[in-house]
Design brief:
- This protein has about 140 residues and is an all-alpha fold.
- It has one domain.
- Helix content is about 75%, strand content about 0%.
- The chain has helices at about 1-30, 50-55, 60-70, 80-105, 115-139.
- The longest helix is centred in the N-terminal third of the chain and has 31 residues, at about 1-30.
- The chain starts with a helix and ends with a helix.
Length: about 140
């Protein structure tokens, strides 16, 4: 029975590796051929409710929080103030990262106005994605 689980797990992991690499290559293709504009014309802005739901059900945040609290903070004293302080620090760190991302996005948006700059950025990002996919398959 153990060998059956081991073989199924090996097959599943190999399948996930190849599917993940294929998806990354698809993303590289989409990034390479992306034609984006920086105008707000024709786009629907998200309201507060949409942003709140997006953040509450964001799988990256959930995985990060679960990993943080179960692995790194498991030896923390299980008191309410310690939990509150760690959650406050986590919130401040996330807010700082999002603010920095928005600042750099606003700062460099004028650079991406030219078609040549868009091609350079898209090509660079696509090459990095291809490298990631190849590394995923090789390793």
């Amino acid at each position: 029975m153990g060998s059956l689980y081991r073989s199924l797990l090996t097959f599943f992991l190999r399948l996930c590796k190849y599917l993940g690499a294929a998806y990354i290559l698809y993303l590289a293709y989409r990034v390479l051929h992306a034609d984006y504009t920086l105008s707000q014309k024709g786009s629907k802005l998200l309201d507060y409710k949409d942003g709140l739901l997006l953040q509450l059900f964001n799988p990256k945040v959930l995985v990060l929080a679960l990993t943080l609290y179960t692995t790194f903070l498991s030896s923390m004293n299980h008191s309410v103030p310690a939990l509150f302080l760690s959650a406050l620090f986590f919130t401040m760190m996330s807010f700082s990262a999002i603010s920095l991302w928005a600042f750099f996005g606003t700062t460099f948006s004028h650079v991406l106005a030219s078609q040549k700059a868009k091609r350079v950025v898209n090509s660079s990002l696509a090459l990095l994605l291809v490298f990631s996919a190849v590394t995923l398959i090789i390793v």
